[in-house]
Design a protein that fits this description.
A: 166 residues, alpha/beta, 6-stranded parallel β-sheet, B: 189 residues, Rossmann fold, globular
């Protein structure tokens, strides 16, 4: 719970007040925290691409949105990211559980893991890669950066960082 | 009645609300009929009009109308489940159902065959789902906006067919900023 709490605290400190998720077991604690947080909006959504649309609307309504998802969700959302969030320069934080990184027990997750950072780089999306607790302190500044540059940004949380966060 | 005729009929209602308008011909036709700062024209991301409108309705109090199409809803059908479970009362989804992919040359969609978006919406959890003719749409849209306790999905069944039209000459940041200024979120314009 300590890691998940630190991530949410830092996102809130960065101004994020509207959260969506397509669940992942590594995000489960964060979802629990958000479901009990009266200060921010939280909902699950069925698909990441749809979530990008909802985040775009939330930004238009002056919220600062974050969508939490597995890295596979980036694959589901490429056109929405480019032709909506980037086209209209909308700041959205992607909080990504980085499945398929070392510690991952499911071999099939390795495929998207191998190309996740390449996709984000191709999309010119600023990345913050968190592999240890210390790096989580950068999340609030990094989130504010999304607003300054009016762009989506991606925070990648490694499997081993999240897996023991009981 | 085709989409252009319908948009002409509802334009006076749209003027008083926040409108997210579907990509392609719907946005181009609406722009030609009456351009307003409170109209957000989609220039990409087919399928997401309903979702953008939902996020906007959840984030502020003004009434939001998402103008969508049958082809676009078929592309993002999970949106109906999210709307059925989460849409606030200041949200109306207007699906202009002409049974065809109008912007790409009027190819038939599945709503012109077996699919009923009304049945899908009801099954997805949407409570107030109205299927009506183009002529009835003005009245149904007014009722939906006047009801301060419920969100609505209105499926307006019209004929396919488009008018000859040019692309929207606005750049995306202009569309974004004047829309946010109308809501009161941008000060610098």
């Amino acid at each position: 719970m300590k890691i998940s709490k630190k991530i949410i605290d830092n996102l809130k400190k960065g101004g994020v007040d509207f959260y969506l998720s397509v669940p992942c077991k590594l995000l489960a604690n964060m979802i629990d925290i958000l479901e009990n947080d009266k200060d921010v909006y939280y909902s699950a959504v069925p698909r990441e691409e749809e979530g990008m649309g909802i985040c775009a609307g939330a930004y238009l309504g002056n919220k600062f949105p974050c969508i939490m998802m597995q890295n596979t969700g980036i694959g589901n959302s490429v056109n929405a990211i480019v032709s909506l969030l980037q086209l209209y320069q909308m700041p959205v934080v992607f909080l990504i559980s980085y499945r398929g990184t070392p510690g991952e027990p499911v071999g099939a997750q390795g495929g998207m893991a191998k190309i996740t950072e390449d996709i984000l780089q191709t999309l010119r999306i600023p990345m913050l890669h968190c592999s240890s607790e210390k790096e989580l302190d950068k999340i609030s500044t990094f989130s504010k950066h999304a607003k300054v540059v009016e762009s989506p940004v991606a925070i990648l949380c490694d499997f081993n960082l999240m897996k023991d966060d009981k | 009645m085709n989409r252009f005729d319908l948009l002409n009929k509802v334009q006076n209602i749209l003027k008083d609300n926040l409108v997210i308008c579907n990509i392609g011909l719907p946005s181009q036709e609406l722009y030609k009929i009456s351009d307003q700062p409170n109209f957000f024209y989609m220039l990409g991301s087919m399928g997401l009009s309903s979702s953008i409108g939902l996020g906007l309705a959840l984030s502020q109090n003004k009434h939001v109308i998402s103008i969508d199409g049958d082809g676009s809803v078929l592309m993002n059908m999970n949106t109906l489940a999210t709307i059925g479970n989460r849409a606030p009362s200041n949200y109306t989804l207007l699906i202009i159902d002409n049974g065809s992919y109008g912007s790409t040359g009027d190819q038939r969609t599945f709503t012109d065959e077996k699919t009923s978006l009304k049945d899908v919406a009801l099954g997805a959890g949407c409570k107030n789902v109205i299927e009506c003719s183009g002529e009835e749409t003005v009245n149904e849209l007014n009722k939906a906006i006047d009801d301060k306790d419920n969100s609505y999905v209105i499926i307006s069944k019209i004929n396919s067919g488009n008018v000859k039209i040019d692309p929207i000459p606005l750049n995306p940041i202009t569309i974004r900023d004047r829309f946010r200024k109308f809501i009161g979120k941008v000060k610098y314009l």
